[in-house]
Amino acid sequence: MAWHCSGTTNQEMVMKLKGKIMQGSILSSDRAEASMLAVDRGRYCHEPEPYIDRPRRIGFNVTISAPHMHAYALSILSDQLFDGAKAMDVGSGSGYLTACMAYMVGSRGRVIGIDHIPELIELSIKNVREDCPHFIKEGRVNFIVGDGRLGQPADGPYNAIHVGAAAETLPQQLIDQLAPGGRLICPVVSIEGFQRFQDLLQVDKNADGTVTKKKLMQVSYVPLTDPATQLHKD
């Protein structure tokens, strides 16, 4: 997919992602498209050629996901990222998807970006200040150091939760923090025989509090783990 959706500018990257709708519904939401046009990936990915459609290293043994995965996530969460919504981005990394979510929820919305590496939180704040400083000034986005597996109950419940790393099991704490009508997407490890896979799961909380789960696709993400394990990864 990388050779189809890469660009030399942010706009070209987004237009190529949109052009793949008929072949896989990558960027299927107009509001998701608008957010990716408004938030410049190059401000959050500091390696050469930031608009190539593949994951890129951001330090601390983690990556910023490929643009097509961000486009897909924002499209899947589009209805929950409405004006005035509350959202949380677990494993916020360099802050890119958090900023896109903040664009979508508008000035009345709030997005929490949570990561357990303090240096990445500092990087996220710096990136957003340079790209969309009004998000910080308005309090529309807030980055915090914490264990994303536990979420941030004090600022919930959330209409949308995105998890940007693969959990061994679906974190119940995050499901508990979903508002009725809310949606969570999270990569979760799946074991079949001697093989390990990752399934991207969609979790919806119904109005009566019941939960439905749906497998969307197989993916490949860095593990959702503790800081010591992450930083000592070979």
From TrEMBL:
Listed GO biological process terms: methylation
Q: Which GO terms describe its cellular component?
A: cytoplasm
Chief subcellular location equals cytoplasm
The Enzyme Commission number assigned here is 2.1.1.77
The compartments listed are: Cytoplasm
Molecular function in Gene Ontology? protein-L-isoaspartate (D-aspartate) O-methyltransferase activity
Gene3D superfamilies found in the cross-reference section: Vaccinia Virus protein VP39 (3.40.50.150)
Catalysed reaction(s) here are: [protein]-L-isoaspartate + S-adenosyl-L-methionine = [protein]-L-isoaspartate alpha-methyl ester + S-adenosyl-L-homocysteine
Enumerate the UniProt keywords alphabetically. Cytoplasm, Methyltransferase, S-adenosyl-L-methionine, Transferase
User: Which InterPro entries does the annotation name?
Assistant: PCMT (IPR000682), SAM-dependent_MTases_sf (IPR029063)
Which Pfam families does the protein's record reference? PCMT
The similarity annotation says: Belongs to the methyltransferase superfamily. L-isoaspartyl/D-aspartyl protein methyltransferase family.
Its protein name is Protein-L-isoaspartate(D-aspartate) O-methyltransferase
Q: Which organism is it from?
A: Dufourea novaeangliae
